[in-house]
Design goal:
The chain has about 270 residues and is α+β, with helices and mostly antiparallel strands. It has helices spanning about 5-15, 20-30, 35-40, 55-70, 85-105, 105-120, 165-175, 180, 250-265, and strands at about 120-130, 135-140, 145-150, 155-165, 195-200, 205-210, 215-220, 230. Helix 4 crosses helix 6.
Length: about 270
Amino acid sequence: MLSAKDVVAKVARLQTKYAKRDQRMRDVLSVRQGDIARVYPSMFSEDYPKPLVANFIDVAAKDLAEAMAPLPSFNCSATNMVSDSARKAADTRTRIAGHYISASELQIQMYQGADWFNTYGMLPAIVEMDYDSNNPKIRLLNPFGVYPEIDRFNRTISLTQIVQTDAESLAAQYPEFYTQIVGNNYTQGSPLLSLVRYHDKDQDLIFLPERQNLVLANTPNPTGRCLASVAVRPSIDGEARGQFDDVLAVQLARARFAVLQIQAAEK
């Protein structure tokens, strides 16, 4: 079982390995947020710091996500459909699967999940235990800052997620660690903290590297298998590539041309 220090070392290796992927994700996120000047700063001026055309990448991503989001039907079949007991068992499994999907609100999550899948080229998911209802819950994760380890059989060995958040919001989620998270010298506008979540077949570990690897939660995994899975869009080199990675320059050209048209009209 890895300690927080071991996970920090693994995170450093994974971030180095996926540096190019992270940069692509950061660029497309900035463009979708309307901050294309952060990706191409030399193409904009103080007079025109923002693009003057519609963000067609964001519009296309939302339309495509709405078309992909609806879930298929889930039906469990029996090997011998002639037997009444086999059919009843298959119907029972179908109702159980339907309950897990409904309780997880997977259909609602899929609208955001389909958007993530098209934008970043991958979609991680994890199964968690809801101790209030005593049911497993399927949760889709934002791929930005997620580093999976996949074996040669395409099975997820571990999943590391890094979430940037401010100390006040994090302390509200973990009030029992309020003093350790916020500290005595915390002021508004302090740097963001990195919340690291590491999941494998042995444990589910959540800690803060900036707070001397403060462990917020460490739950053993009684199943003995990693309860995370990652769907990756097919690509020529096997890396996660989003649907819009290659059209960022097109959005830039449209925005730049609009600025040149206005400047020409002024002259």
